[in-house]
Amino acid sequence: MRAAGTGSAGATGSRFDRARDTSEAAEDRLYLASQWRLMWLKFRRHKLALTGVAVAMLFYLFGAFCEVIAPYDPRHRHGSHTFVPPQAIHFYDSEGGFSLRPFVYRLERHVDPRSLRRTYTEDRSQRYYVKLFHRGQPYQWWGLFEADLHLFGVEGEGTIFLLGTDRLGRDMLSRIVYGSRISLSIGLIGVAVSLILGLILGGVSGYYGGATDTVVQRAIEMLRSFPTIPLWLALGAALPLEWGPVQRYFAITLVVSLIGWTGLARVVRGKLLALREEDFVTAALVAGAKESTVIRRHLLPSFMSHIIVSITLSIPGVILAETGLSFLGLGLLPPVISWGVLLKEAQNISTVGLNPWLLLPAVPVIVTVLAFNFVGDGLRDAADPYKA
Fold first, then answer.
1. Over the stretch 184-224, which tens digit does the pLDDT of each residue have?
2. Which residue in 55, 195, 315, 372 has a CA-CA distance of 20 to 30 Å to 283?
3. ∠ CA 24-30-36, rounded to 5°
C-alpha cells in the first residue's frame, strides 16, 4: 500500500512537473517572440476584430468573383419585372408538402388602373427549383475568358430576385455584388495613394523640420480647414462629363486621396519628431547612411504598426467618400456600378416609400465600414503589445 501511494504521489508530481515545464516553455517563447508575433497574439484575442477581418475578406471575395456569385448580368433588363419586391424562397407548399429542394413561384404582375402602381403575386400552380452552380447568362470573368456558371439560379423561364429589381427590371442582388468590386477597390487604391503622399510629406516634414515643416503643416491645415463635402463637390464637379468610366474611376480615386493623406502625414510627422534624435538614427548617419535611407529603412519601420492602424481606419472614409460623391451625382456615373451609384436610385422619396428595397445597397456600406472600424480597433490595441 505504501508503495502504491508512493507511486501515485510520484505520478502526480510528474504531471505537475510536466505542466510546469510546458508553462515555462510557453513563457520563454513569449519572451523571445518578436513584436509582430506579440501583436498577432494580442490581435487574435479581439473577437470583434477577427469578425471584421472575416467580413471584409468575404466582401472582397464577392468583388473578385462577382460574375460567378451574381445570378444575372447586372445590366440585363427584365422588362416585365420592374420594381419587383424581394422574392421569397420556399421549402413548403400547401399542396405538395415539404420539399428538400428550395423553390420559387412564378410571379404574376398586376397594374392598378388608377394609380398605375405595379404589384406582384405568386402563382402557386407553377414552381421553379433553385439550382446551385447553374448554367445561366454568359459573362467574361475579369475580361479574361467567357463562362456561364453562376452560384445559383432557376431553370426554365423562372426568375429569382432575392433583393428585388429596380425601375428597369435589373436584379438588385447582382448589382450590389458587382458594385462591391468598384467601391472596395476604390478604398484600397485611394488609401494606397494617401499612404504614399502621407509617408513622403509627413516624413520630410518631421525629419527636416524648419521651413519645410512649416510649409507642409500649413498646407495640411488649409486642406483640413475646408468643409469636406463642399470640397468634394467642387473637385467632383471639376471632372469633365465627357470622360469615360475608367477615367472617372481613377479621377475620383485621386480626389478622395487628396483629402485622406493629411491625417497619416500628421501621424508620421509626430513619430519622426520623437525618433529622429534617437541613438540608432545617429549611428546610421555616422555610418554614412543617407538621410532618405535613414527615413526609409530605420525610422518608418520602427512605427509601421501605427501606420497599418491608420491605413485600416482610413479605408472606410474613402469608401464613404466615393459613395457620397456618386450619390450626389458627382462621382462615378452609369454604366459604372458602385454602391453609391445604386443609392442614387433611392434619391426620390416617393420611390423609396413605394419600393424600400432600393435602399438595400446601404447595408453593405454600413457593414463594411463597421468591419474595418472593428479591425482598426483591434490593430490599435495590438499596436502596443506590451500594454495590458
1. 998 888 888 888 888 889 888 988 888 989 999 999 888 88
2. 195
3. 170
